[in-house]
Amino acid sequence: MHSEVSVLASQYERVAFEEVHRHVLHLIPTDPVRVLDIGAGTGRDAAALSIRGHSVVAVEPAEDLRAAGQRLHAAHNIHWVDDTLPDLRSLRGKHRPFQLVMLTAVWMFLRKDQRRCAVSRIDELLEEGGRLGMVLRDGPAPANRGMLTVSAADTISLLATRGIRHIHQSQQADVLGREGVVWNNLFFEKPPAPKRTADTSSFV
Ligand SMILES: C[S@@+](CC[C@H](N)C(=O)[O-])C[C@H]1O[C@@H](n2cnc3c(N)ncnc32)[C@H](O)[C@@H]1O
Fold this sequence. Notes:
alpha/beta; Rossmann fold
C-alpha cells in the first residue's frame, strides 16, 4: 500500500464506528435497511453497518482507499462504487432510494456550489422517511488536503431548503486527539410520503 494511503487507512480504522457515532447510535435504524455511505474511505462504517444487518453501498472515489477497504473488509457484504459527489452519476437508475445515507468527514471536501448540488442529489437518493447522518469537521485543517470550512448552521439551512429536517446536533472532541479539532454530529430526516386518503368521489 502507498505510504500516504496506509497512514490514512490506519487513522480511519483506528477508531470504531461506535465511537465516531456514539451520540447518534440511537438514530440508526435497527431493522435492516438500504444504506449509502458516501466518501466511505476504507469502509470502517460500511463494514460496521453491514455487520448490523444493513445492505450497504459504499461510494469512494479514491482508488487506493477503495482497494484498501475492499481488502480490509473483504469478509463483509459491501457493494463498492467508484463515484464522486455532487453528481454520483453511476448510481442513477441502479438502486432504490436509500433509507439511511451517511456522510462522515466528507462535506469539507466540497466547495459551496458543489454542496448545493450535492444536497439535491442526496434528496433524490434518500427515501421518504429516510435519515441522513453527517459528521462535519471543525478546526484547523492539515496542509494540502483541500479541506474547506463548513458550518453546521449553514448545512442545516441548506438541507432545510429541500425540506430535510434536522433532528439532532451534538459535538465531540477529536477521537485521535488532534489539537483544536472538534466534530459536529448532525442527523436529518426526510419527511415521510403523505398518506394517501381513500378516494370517496365515487360515493358522492
Ligand atoms: C476524511 S475521509 C473520511 C472517510 C470515512 N467516511 C471515515 O469516516 O473514515 C474523507 C473521504 O471522502 C472522500 N471524498 C472526498 N471528496 C469526495 C467527493 N466529492 N465525493 C465523495 N467522496 C469524497 C475521500 O476520498 C475520503 O475517502
